[in-house]
Amino acid sequence: xxxxxxxxxxxxxxxxxxxSRSESIDLLEAVLETMxxxxxxxxxxxxxxxxTFMVRRKGQRSGRNPKTGVEIPxxxxxxxxxxxxxxxxxxxxxAPE
Length: 97
What we know:
InterPro entries: Hist_DNA-bd, Histone-like_DNA-bd_CS, IHF-like_DNA-bd_dom_sf, IHF_alpha. This protein has helices spanning 6-17, 21-40, 86-92, and strands at 45-47, 51-58, 61-64, 71-74, 77-84.
């Protein structure tokens, strides 16, 4: 099993779509930048048949330093979550397409 990288995605675009390598990289960067900007604005990104990236807001809560046991506040923050589509879940579990 290997990790999918930007370079490997751009190479797939190059071989399967037929764009030049630089055009493939530009296309990939444009898609990723659009997704990042949408998530930054607090909106969700839904890719049909793949899944949905969502921004979740977490409120302030208290945590504990495991070493000292001292209670500390954990500040509010935003996290990005991913929910796979039914199609992707089925494929990951070996269901036929």
